[in-house]
Design goal:
The protein is an alpha/beta fold. The protein contains two helices and three strands. It has a three-stranded parallel beta sheet with strand order 1-2-3, with helices on one face. Strand 1, helix 1 and strand 2 form a beta-alpha-beta unit. Helix 1 runs parallel beside helix 2.
């Protein structure tokens, strides 16, 4: 399946498994929407995704519970 230019929403995307998935999908050329409660972690993961090649990355501080 072609993932380039698909938009992926990742809850818990600031750290751990969510951050790892976001970075890997960024390498595949996906647009990434990060959702987490930790602003610092979101900023780090956003930068990592941009550096990995994601065309567009947005990050939002949201409580999905």
């Amino acid at each position: 399946m072609e993932l380039r230019n698909k938009t992926i929403v990742i809850t818990g995307g600031g750290r751990g498994l969510g951050a790892a998935i976001a970075t890997r999908l960024a390498e595949k050329g996906c647009n990434i929407a990060l959702i987490d409660l930790d602003d610092d972690a979101l900023a780090e993961t956003k930068a990592a995704c941009e550096n990995a090649g994601a065309p567009k990355v947005i990050a939002h501080n949201v409580n999905v519970s």
